[in-house]
Amino acid sequence: MDEEERRLIDLERELTLLCRHFVASRGPRSGQTLERSAYVLLTRLEAGDPLTLKELAHTFQVNVSTINRQVSPMLKMGLVERIPDPDGGMARKYRPTTLGLERLRVDREISLEGAARLIRTTEWTDTTTQHFLTLLSQLNQSIERLEGLSLDRSPETSTPTDPAH
Predict the structure, then answer these.
(1) Rounded mean pLDDT for each run of 10 residues along the chain, 165 residues in total
(2) Domain HTH marR-type spans what residues (predicted)?
């Protein structure tokens, strides 16, 4: 086995462990009210313009039927709303409601407490944490480029303009 193959094996193993450890190390989801899929979808919808089911499916690389099964209960719970395409397209788009954004904010605070606990227990310096964040962001952006995905990484602070939502 050559050095490059060894590095790839090590990288694959460490990424697999990261996925498993990160969720477990943050602790229980006690207090969080959103299903994991709702949390992920709201996080994506918060980050940019409204999206169709097809656009969401492409973003998460799943079938439209899978996204539909995840979005439907969110729609019934008032976490997202279906709106006409602002660009005049035929497909309806989805955006988070004020309630959805509030529930996301509450769950995110709990998640951030877990992430902070993880960083504190590893005794990482601010520099180490920032370096890891930079490398992880570069890795995710490279994956997105390979998969033909784009993700706006700067969440918008605006909320839906309809006060009824």
Answers:
(1) 92 85 62 85 92 92 95 97 88 96 92 80 85 90 84 48 33
(2) 35-87
Question: Distance from CA of residue 85 to its chain's centroid?
Answer: 23
Per CATH, domain 32-147 is 1.10.10.10: yes
Q: Which residues neighbour 37 within 8 Å (Cβ) at sequence distance 6 or greater? A: 70
pTM for the predicted model, two decimal places: 0.74
Calpha distance 144→136 (Å, rounded) = 12
| Displacement of CA 118 from its chain's centroid (Å) | 19
